[in-house]
Amino acid sequence: MKMGYMAITCILLLGSLVSGCSNKEQAETTTATAAVINEPTNASTESTLPNVQKITFYSEALSKDMRFNIYLPIGYQSENKYPVLYLIHGYGSNETMWLSGLGLDKTADKLQIEGKIKPLIIVTPQIDNSYGFNSTSAGNYSDYLVKDLIQYVDSHFSTDAIRGSRYIGGLSMGGWAALYNAFTHPELFSKVGGHSPGLWVDDWTNTGDLQYWLYPTDEIRAQRDPILLAETQDLQGLSVYLDCGDEDSYKFYLGTEALYKKLQSQNVKSEYHRSPGGHEDNYWRTHESEYLLFYAGK
User: Fold this and answer.
1) Are 56 and 65 in contact (CB under 8 A)?
2) What are the pLDDT digits (tens) for 231-265?
C-alpha cells in the first residue's frame, strides 16, 4: 500500500465528513491527563504469529472495543521487565501497518539477534483517522492512548512501567499523534519519533476541511500543533527523532525542519534526518533499523 495515494483519498473523505460540523463542535479542546483509570475489561486475545498477537480490549475513553497488535521480543519471559515502544499507523491504515505491513517484527528480531538493540515490546494501536487527540466529534483518542492502552499493556505484559522505558512514535498522521501526545504528556515518555510526521505548515491544498477540524482556532492550534508546543512545553529529558523523505508528496519535510529548529532553540535533545524517498511504505521500511536503534539501541 502506498501511503501517499491512500492519504489523499482518506483526507478528502475526512473533509466531507467534518465539513458539516458546527463551530461549537469544531472548537473542541484537549483535556487528556496522565491519570490512570481502572483496568479496561472485556479483553480478548487472538494469537497470530509466534511473537505477535492481535488483541481487542474495551476502551473506557472511547466507550468501544479497540484493537492493537503487540510484538514480544525473542526470549520474552514474564519474570523480566521490558521497555515498551508504542508505534502509530498513518491515515487510512490500521494497527497492522507496522508489524505485518512493514515487517517491523522481523527487523526487530534481526537486530536483537545481532545484539544491536535491547529486547523490547512493540505495541501498534488502532487510532482510526483521529490524529490521536481528544475530540467532541471523533472521540477521546488521546485518553485512549495515554490512559486505557498504557494501563492495559502494563497490566497484562511484563513491562518496565516507568517513563525511561516507555517510547512512542509514528508515521505520517501517526507521527503527528506521537509528537502531540509526547509533548502534552512528557511525564509518560522518554523518547518520541516522528517519521514523515504530518506537520502541516501553510499548504493545505487538497485536504478538504482538515485544517478547520485539526486547528479550528488559533487558540486550539497552540494547544495541538507540535511545532508550537515545542515552544511552550517543558520537554527537557525527552529525546526526539525526526525524519522525512526529500520527495515527500505533502512536503512534510518543511514542518519537520521547522519543528527541529524549534526543538534545537529550546535545547531539547533532538535529531533530524532528511533522506531520499517519498511518502510511502518503501521509505519507512528502508529506515526501520534506524528507528529501532534510536528507541532501543545498545
Assistant:
1) yes
2) 999 999 999 999 999 999 999 999 999 999 999 99
CA distance 219 to 240: 25
Which one-letter amino acid corresponds to residue 119? P
pLDDT tens per residue across span 38-60: 444 456 666 655 689 999 999 99
Q: What is the dihedral of CA 148, 150, 155, 161, to 10 degrees?
A: -150
- DSSP line for 172-234: THHHHHHHHHHHH-TTT-SEEEEES-----S--TT-TTHHHHH-SSHHHHHHH-HHHHHHHS-
DSSP 103-137: -HHHHHHHHHHTTSB---EEEEE--TTSTTSEETT
Angstrom distance (rounded) from CA 287 to CA 281: 10
Q: Please name the residue that has the C-alpha cell 505520517.
A: 172
Amino acid symbol at 9 = T
* Dihedral sign for Cα atoms in the order 163, 105, 87, 259: positive
pTM: 0.86
Give the Cα separation of 121 and 110 in Å (integer).
14
Q: Is 275 exposed, middle or buried (0-12, 13-18, 19+ CB in 10 A)?
A: middle
The three cell numbers of residue 176 are 503527528
CA distances from residue 291 to 28, 99, 270 in whole angstroms, order as listed = 33, 14, 13
For residue 194, give the nearest of 135, 268, 139 by alpha carbon. Answer: 268
